[in-house]
Amino acid sequence: MTKPFVVIHTHTSLDGKIKTVKSPRFKTTSQQYQDIALTPDAQFYDIDGYLNGRTTSEDNNEMQALDLDESVEVPEGDFVAQGNADMYYVSIDRRGVLGWTTNTIHYGNRPAHIIEVLSEKATNGYKAFLREIEISYIVAGSEELDNVLILNKLQSLFGMNRIMIGGGGVLNWSFLQAGLVDEVSIVMGPFADGDPENPSLFSASEPFSTPEAITFDLIDAKPIEDSAVWLRYRPLTN
Ligand SMILES: NC(=O)c1ccc[n+]([C@@H]2O[C@H](COP(=O)([O-])OP(=O)(O)OC[C@H]3O[C@@H](n4cnc5c(N)ncnc54)[C@H](OP(=O)(O)O)[C@@H]3O)[C@@H](O)[C@H]2O)c1
Questions:
Q1: Chain segment 54-73, per-residue pLDDT in tens
Q2: How far is the CA of 104 from the centre of ligand 1 (A)?
Q3: Could you name the CATH architecture of 1-48+161-238?
Q4: Residue 167 contacts residue 107 (beta carbons within 8 Å)
Q5: Phi and psi dihedrals of 26, rounded to 5?
């Protein structure tokens, strides 16, 4: 089986930060970022779905407090609630803690069916909750997640051949350091706020990854609307 094509696609400030900056141009470049990823007729990468880290899912979606029944039995293995979605939102949540309220994300006007990526540490109670609200899940690792297995299962169970890593920085760096990324795409907006608490495009974090120098070749650099640029790089790790 060949590996799916993987692109990290991110909207950053001039200083490579990924959280919202209160600039009048943030909204315009955010829209350009969404267009390149998702908007029909404008999108560039033809992705089947995008991956987000647990922090990003929590920051951007309404969640409910969970009251799980841990005495419940669930079948072994993975659960495919929807195998032919137009778009997938893949939630990296090894411990199984996110209290989703729906099985669909509407980001970028492109409904996306949620797939939770769990380790074997996630409980039966959590899996039963996902089954109940018809969120798909895959189990990809005993304690820590196996990024290669994640890509293999997304491809074999959901037909995902072109995958975007949507961030944040911790997730981005873990896939990049594992040599699984074919391209890095950055929509860089003309703003910065110097906030040292604002996370970066790439962030090494144990046990997922470590700091290490990685080098890139430029594929393309394009000025886009409102003084933003779209940068495309190929990592020299694979
Ligand atoms: N500008 C943009 O384009 C953009 C895009 C996405 C996100 N963001 C922003 O970025 C911020 C969050 O970024 P972040 O870097 O702090 O966090 P993140 O990457 O979204 O999430 C980090 C968490 O995800 C899980 N995780 C990540 N990589 C993993 C791996 N390889 N294996 C297993 N679990 C993994 C871990 O959760 P557990 O420890 O719970 O297992 C980890 O603590 C948010 O504010 C979000 O809004 C911006």
A1: 999 999 999 999 999 999 99
A2: 19
A3: 3-Layer(aba) Sandwich (3.40)
A4: no
A5: -60, -45
CA 55 to centroid of ligand 1, rounded, Å: 5
- For the chain, the domains span 1-48+161-238, 49-151
pTM over 0.90: yes
Choose one of 17, 170, 197 to mutate for the ligand 1 pocket test, by most ligand atoms within 8 angstroms of C-beta: 170
36 C-beta closer than 6 A to ligand 1: no
- List per-block mean pLDDT (blocks of 10 residues) for the chain, which spans 238 residues: 93 97 96 96 97 97 97 97 97 98 95 98 98 98 97 98 97 97 98 96 97 97 96 88
Of 25, 23, 33, 16, nearest in space to 199 by CA:
16
Instruction: Calculate the average pLDDT of the chain.
Output: 97
Expressed in angstroms and rounded, the spacing between residue 57 Cα and the centre of ligand 1 is: 8
CA distance 31 to 3: 29
Closest-CA residue, ligand 1 atom 14, reads 168
Q: Is the CB–ligand 1 distance for residue 54 below 6 Å?
A: yes
